[in-house]
Amino acid sequence: MDILSDTLEVLRTGRPMVSRTEAHAPWALKFQPVSGAGFHVVVEGHCHLLPPHGRPLALGPGDIVFLRRGSGHVLCDLPDRDPVDFVPERVDRSSPIGQVTVDGPGPRTVLVCGAYAIDVDRPHPLFGDLPEVVHLPAVPGRHPVLRSAVDQLCAEFHAPQPGSDAVVTALIDLLLLYILRSWYAELPKERTRGWTAALTDPAVAPALKAIHDDPGHPWTVESLGTRAGLSRAAFARRFASVVGEPPLTYLTNWRMATAARLLHHSAAPLSTVAQHTGYTSEFAFAKAFKRHFGAPPGAYRRQVRTAGDEPRGDDWR
Questions:
Q1: With bands split at pLDDT 50, 70 and 90, how would you rate the model's confidence at 308?
Q2: Which domain of life is it from (predicted)?
């Protein structure tokens, strides 16, 4: 699996949720913070995004915004409105699809509002490299694949058919990848630092792929440097400069993220999880995991299983 796909797969903690929102002015909807990331697509009409910090952001038809931490915010027709909570209605509680309607005498705005269950609390350069709010304005001819995914998503909302839940879930996952790709495409080509640069850097990318392909291997700075064709010292400097953290720090963080996903989504015994993530004993693994997450692996597994798989934050669901 390629590095970006693998990273999203491991950081994902559950299924995404999405709602079609139709609002007639005057209106304002308040979105509570969620433990994940969020997005909005303006299908029709105009509105404003009021972030927790900064100025209102005017949005028009086709605009897409991505909030990398699922921060609380407001969407409204005009910035001076008093907001009400965003609470989607779902015909079936097991469905990821919801509907919100705000009646009023004024112009209509149609939005697709969604949330991803992603472990954004654990630092990873993928999300650390993004601004708090990513705005992809609608520009004719730009990002055609992203626009196609949005069109397919809107078609499923407009005329749902058997299997729509599965189709919508798949399209939302695709949308996240396309949003990230589109954002990366907007960055200067000469950019030499950050996650975007790391994915294509001739020295760093092979080392990242090695870590992702086999997190349980006893990697050292020297062996990773050999993959990159550099000496130990030169590789360590290059990796830290591009990625933003030393190679063994990244390795440890990735092993812990991988372990957390295995504990969440599999019934593998702790000894198997330990071996898969590079620890020769269950005790050493448990000690490292508790240091990283603040809870031993068994307790963590029970906690995440109890919490469920949806983005936490009632107003996005």
A1: low
A2: Bacteria
